[in-house]
User: What shape does this take?
Amino acid sequence: VMVSCSDGPVLKPIEKDLVEIKMVSSVTPGTRAAIESDDSGLLKTGPINVHFDRAADAATAEWSTATTLVEATLDASGDITFASAQYYNVDETKNSHLFGYYAGTEITPSSGKLTVPITNGDLDVLYTKIPVSGNKTTVGALQPVFDHALAWVKIQIKGDAAASAIWGDVTKITIKDVAKNVEITLGASASIA
Assistant: This one.
């Protein structure tokens, strides 16, 4: 047995101990969504840039504290490629927890919430209702499922001569209480307000 102590720099994990996090995803089909997917959950159009908030590696995720933003690309085949490789913690008792979203731009969570400003009906907000977790013993790719969080209000009005006679000329329609933001609360099961 050989034992030694040192007050030198902390050594990095040996490369062979690092296990890269791999992901294959799907997008829940939405009706009239800006980002469309087929019945199997694969994108109908080219790749989109998605983001993942990564909680500190631990047995369970703590989303109300600071998270690390990780950029990635989701392609039409469902593969997710991180801008910089992500690895599981070398301590297999610590899970890596990732919450994915697409909001057209990078958003920093605050107090465990993502707030996405809604400026027009062209933005499709996607998010993973259930964050994905795993550790270095995880077999295969993590499989996050992105759901649509935004359904823009679309009104189609039809009338006939009888309606016109009763209502006259309709010059304005106002919809009240339409949200100006989509707020996603991160957690074991994400929720939308």
Q: What stands out?
A: The CA atoms of residues 29 and 46 lie 16 Å apart. Helices lie at 161-167.
